[in-house]
Amino acid sequence: MEQQRFRVGILGATGAVGQKFVEVLEGHPWFEITALAASERSAGRPYAEAANWIGSSEIPPHVAAMEVQEAEPGFNADLVFSGLDSSVAGEIEAAFARAGYPVISNARNYRMQDDVPLLIPEINPDHTRLIERQQWDEGNGEARGGFIVTNPNCSTVGLVCALRPLVDAFGVAQVQVTTMQALSGAGYPGVSSLDALGNVVPYIGGEEEKMAAEPRKLLGTLRDGVVEPAALAISAQCNRVPVLDGHMECISVKFASPAAVEDVRRAFLDYRSPIDAYDLPSAPPRLLHVFDDPRFPQPRRHASLGRGLTVSIGRIRPCEVLDVKFVALVHNTVRGAAGGAVLNAELLVHQGYLKKRQRAAVSA
Ligand code: NAP
């Protein structure tokens, strides 16, 4: 049966996140890569030559041969995914939105803007209604239908997926979180080997601020077209460790109403996401996986659970300072970046926000 697919472009296609987009979109039933863009250093070259490929599978042949373009509107695409460096994402993503493209971004530039959804489909799918407040035009009042939707910071994703069931069941007043973040989170080439190997770097610029602010918007309540931030205090300490993929987070929580360790474990096990019924192609079987073996989860063994979209929880126990503590593990370039963005786009298709732009059909 012939089925129309959405044509997708990738901005920042040569970077760590851009490459993960290429991997997770391979064979996707709804999306087909039709355009790739990066900096002028890469533009004009075949993708296989421009990208220093770090993926674990081969570059799909039809992508390897595609010419990388400059990151300017005029793309053969219905929507664009962005893995752009934040130093350039602000202007480039706005240019695409003004030109009428839906932009599904990983960059931090628009995450906290009032009318831009900061989205995790399983956590706050209703926040996509903010799109209706966006007005991207060339200054002439004639909007062409473009909009921007963002993913949270990669560590924030793991934290918020773990907090959602606890906020719903007991209320959460305070959170302390210490992260051990993988090298792939710093992009390519990222942290130099002399800094990374056999070492821990106790500073990741801007990360602690993002982890304190973004969860309040994600767990906030949409009322009259405005997100009222959740009232919880978060203290974050972020560290870079010599792990390839997967951010580990040690989390302590103080609840608004009393909860014992077994209540918390049950809340994680019983959590059902609001998108379970939507049958989205990338949605993992379970958002959360709970380990009872105290040695787990571990990044090398468990970061790729649920094709990298499941968040793993373990070591749930009493906290001597707050109420309960546990660890969470999230795949930073999949759930925390490209995979999460593709799931965002699938939700937008389901909700009717993504439409095919005028074009000849691409058949599958
Ligand atoms: P990266 O490996 O450094 O890749 C950056 C990409 O941006 C490259 O494709 C690069 O193209 C492109 N670029 C740089 N300057 C440009 C310009 N002037 N015009 C057009 N393209 C330009 O970084 P990354 O780790 O993939 O991260 C990408 C974005 O995702 C960042 O905003 C980051 O904060 C966010 N993010 C990353 C992760 C993660 O785990 N890595 C997780 C969540 C969010 P060239 O190759 O041509 O230079």
Structure description:
It is a single chain. The termini are close together. The protein has ten helices and 14 strands. With 364 residues, it is of the alpha/beta class. α1 links the parallel β1 (6-11) and β2 (31-38). The chain has two domains: 6-151 and 339-351, NAD(P)-binding Rossmann-like Domain (Rossmann fold), CATH 3.40.50.720; 154-331, Dihydrodipicolinate Reductase, domain 2 (2-Layer Sandwich), CATH 3.30.360. α5 (154-170) packs across α7 and α5 crosses α8. The protein has a six-stranded parallel sheet with strand order 3-2-1-4-5-6, with helices on both faces. Helices cover 25% and strands 22% of the residues. Mean pLDDT is 95; it is low at 360-364. NADP nicotinamide-adenine-dinucleotide phosphate binds at residues 12-18, 38-39, 41-42, 71, 83-86, 88-89, 106-108, 154, 184-185, 187-188, 332-333, 336-337.
List the helices and strands and how they pair.
Layout: E1 6-11, H1 16-25, E2 31-38, H2 47-50, H3 61-64, E3 69-70, E4 79-82, H4 86-98, E5 102-105, E6 147-150, H5 154-170, E7 172-181, H6 193-196, H7 207-218, E8 221-223, E9 226-228, E10 233-240, E11 247-255, H8 261-270, E12 288-290, H9 299-302, E13 311-318, E14 324-330, H10 338-351
Parallel strand pairs: 1-2, 1-4, 2-3, 4-5, 5-6, 7-10, 12-13
Antiparallel strand pairs: 7-11, 8-9, 11-14, 13-14
Helix pairs in contact: 5-7, 5-8
The protein binds NADP nicotinamide-adenine-dinucleotide phosphate (NAP).
NADP nicotinamide-adenine-dinucleotide phosphate binds next to helix 1 and helix 4.
